[in-house]
Amino acid sequence: MERLLQQLINGISLGSIYALIALGYTMVYGIIKLINFAHCDVYMIGAYVGYFCMSYFRLGLLPSLLIAMVVCMLLGVAIEKIAYKPLRNAARITVLITAIGVSLFLEYGTMFFVRAETRTYPPLTGWLAMTFKSGNLVISMQQIVIVGITIILMVLLQFIVKRTKTGKAMRAVSLDQDAAELMGINVDTTISFTFALGSALAGAAGVLVGIYYNSINPLMGMAPGIKAFIAAVFGGIGIIPGAMIGGYFIGMVEVFVSGYGNSMFRDAVVYAILILILIVKPAGLLGKNVREKV
Amino acid sequence: MGRLNEHPAIKKAISLVMTYAIVQLLISANIISDYLQVTLSTICINIILAVSLNLITGITGQFSLGHAGFMSIGAYVCALIVLRMPTLPGFLLGVFAGAAAAALVGCVVGLPTLRLRGDYLAIATLGMAEIIRVVFLNLKITNGAAGLSGIPKFVNWFWLFVFTAGTILAISNFIRSSHGRACISVREDEIAADAMGINTTKYKVMAFTFGAFCAGIAGALYASSFYFIEPSLFGFMKSIDVLVIVVLGGLGSISGSVLATVLLAVISTLLQSFPEIRMVLYAVLLIIIMLFRPQGLMGSKEISLNVFSKLGDLFAARKRRG
Amino acid sequence: MATLKIEKLSKSFGGLMAVSNVSMSLEPGELVGLIGPNGAGKTTVFNLLTGIYVPTSGTITLYRDGKEIKLQGQKPYSICKNGVARTFQNIRLFKDLTVIDNVRIAMHKNVGYGFLTSIFHLPPYQKEEKVLTEKCMELLKIFKLDHKKDEYARNLPYGEQRHLEIARALATDPMLLLLDEPAAGMNPAETSQLTELICWIREKFNLTVLLIEHDMSLVMKICERIYVLDYGMVIAEGTPDEIRSNKRVIEAYLGEAVNDV
Question: ipTM more than 0.90?
Answer without folding.
Answer: no
